[in-house]
Amino acid sequence: MSEPASESVSLREPILVFDDVHLSFAGVKAVNGVSFEVGARELFAIIGPNGAGKTSIFNVLSGVYRPQRGRVVFDGVDLVGKPPHRIAALGMARTFQNIELFSNLTVLDNLMLGRHHHIRYGAPSAFAWFGRARREEIANRAVVENIVDFLELEQWRAFPVGLLPYGVQKRVELGRALAMEPKLLLLDEPVAGMNLEETEDMARFVLDIRDELDIPMILVEHDMGLVMDLADRVMAMDFGTPIVTGTPSQVQADDGVIRAYLGQEHPTEVTT
């Protein structure tokens, strides 16, 4: 039997260290002294109102922004100054709040794009379609087919993603990130715009990724019910500054979080 996620987190070295990071734009502090760690099987959530700095943290992690101060260490490697494609090659994958798929390509083709870091053959082999190119293509397609099964995408595998329901497209984007075989998965509002049934399906897949694939995740999400149900730990932010980091129940009861979300002193809980 596998260890519970909370025990596993405490027994392993953190996969990510985000240490005293500062990021400003024209004097506006987007990330102001933020520090946190993510454990080897942890589902770590970041919450906060719009403009709190959540997406800026993701952009620092993925190399889109370079902080003025601080340290970001992923799997023992310092990420500050590394370009996005190098960080992706180290094993960090990301989904986006707004769907970033090729709508005219099929589900399988979009998922295969997530395998590009694992393809080692060149153009001549690809054109000739023999030897190494053929072997690698078959092996990478097998990985993608496993993801199709895992995310229950079988009935849509040959459809152009632009013809699919919104919730299925979000699932395909998650699958493309999984196709990279990430060591850390960044989920940027994975249930934004979904109905209740789609949200429940996505929540189930997120838990399966952690518990069956052993992939740690950082989740940014406005759906507080989802965050409180799924996350091992939560960091709440406001105006680029951390308010509190702790278990979902600790964060939910914190006065600073309550004020940031509701403008009240002592309501019983934070809700959506």
From TrEMBL:
The keyword ATP-binding applies. It holds the Pfam family ABC_tran. This is Amino acid/amide ABC transporter ATP-binding protein 1, HAAT family. Keywords: ATP-binding, Nucleotide-binding, Transport. Residues 16-264 form the ABC transporter domain. InterPro entries: AAA+_ATPase, ABC_AA/LPS_Transport, ABC_transporter-like_ATP-bd, BCA_ABC_TP_C, P-loop_NTPase. One of its GO terms (molecular function) is ATP hydrolysis activity. Transmembrane segments: none annotated. It comes from the Bacteria. One of its GO terms (cellular component) is plasma membrane.
